[in-house]
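Q: Give me the 3D complex with nickel (II) ion.
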Amino acid sequence: MSRLSILEFPDRRLRRVAKPVDQVTETERQLATDMLETMYAARGIGLAATQVNEGIRLVVMDLSESRDEPRVFINPEIVDRNGAQTCEEGCLSVPGIYAEVERAESVRVKALGLDGEPFELDAEGLLAVCIQHEIDHLDGKVFVDYLSPLKRRMVEKRLRKQQRAEKV
Ligand code: NI
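A: Here is the predicted complex, encoded as structure tokens.
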């Protein structure tokens, strides 16, 4: 197992659109394991392959209090969505920034598991938010894209300042 480094907004590599996985192999299983380790170490609840500079459609999540219920979605796709909810979101690629985003209240997601088998899941509340947030990453989107241009510029400025401070 190894910990991966997480790209930070406004890194252009977060804008790439990830490619579907043709076949789930040991490579994807190893990546999922490393991403889970990385996510747990960073105290996150979700991580998309895009965030660790891997261009494939794979996301990991764990919303449990006990941090022992990992979920892996390969080629996730939202096939149905209903309602609306507003939730305060954060992101491991946008450290220290939290903002309210409106998303669907419930979604039905179709994906492959680590065994390569397809499954479907009905999610609502925070799980639905997390799934939508992570699939956005695979499409090159970051949650701050939903903010007003002014707010987004403020976030960008603050992060660049943080990143400079970390370098010295
Ligand atoms: Ni994120």
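A quick observation: Residues 60 and 72 are 5 Å apart (CA to CA).
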